[in-house]
Design brief:
Oligomer: heterodimer
Largest sheet of chain A: 7 strands, mixed
Low-confidence stretches of chain B: none
Largest interface: A-B, 33 and 26 residues
Low-confidence stretches of chain A: none
Structural class of chain B: mainly beta
Number of helices of chain B: 0
Strand content of chain A: over 45%
Strand content of chain B: over 45%
Order of helices and strands of chain A: EEEEEEEEEEE
Number of helices of chain A: 0
Number of strands of chain A: 11
Distance between the termini of chain A: 32 Å
Radius of gyration of chain B: 14 Å
Largest sheet of chain B: 5 strands, mixed
Amino acid sequence: ETGVTQSPTHLIKTRGQQVTLRCSSQSGHNTVSWYQQALGQGPQFIFQYYREEENGRGNFPPRFSGLQFPNYSSELNVNALELDDSALYLCASSLYLVGLSTDTQYFGPGTRLTVL
Amino acid sequence: DAKTTQPTSMDCAEGRAANLPCNHSTISGNEYVYWYRQIHSQGPQYIIHGLKNNETNEMASLIITEDRKSSTLILPHATLRDTAVYYCIVRVWGGGGADGLTFGKGTHLIIQP
């Protein structure tokens, strides 16, 4: 158990709809990263939030957006859902401090999204 | 981040040490080696990381070669619950950067009873 929680566990949507996934970070962490994992593939980095701002982004279109709240929890929003968005969505929290040479990301259990 | 190469799959007998290799020949001086594992349909689990010295924790040991171009994750006494996909990741951390972890295909480790 990492202390990172995600909701909901499973979700079914239809093409064109919008979805919001939620993540609560581990106590003491200030950074949240989101990943998409298609079936049979490794997780792909979507973006990272630090100090309530997007701090880095992978190769995902703008219809993937997010928020980070003052308590460091985060949301991932996906608009105009496509069939290929069906995947396991993972969030990971970590502690970033200026001068720290590295951080370690701890993952939640994921949200399984199915787009029909 | 440097690319990693891992075997697609490996078998190991229960109770024996599982040694998982990883090649990262283009690793640079400020890149760490991280290992995660993922049991089917669960979130990846952090195992261990290192820069150049060997590391050990309650889960595993990480052996990094002197030239840092390869490493080995060692699970000292494998159990059936260690069956998972193991990912070796090298990650630069320059302070202030915000890059995600780059997962490859990993090694599917199967522990045989």
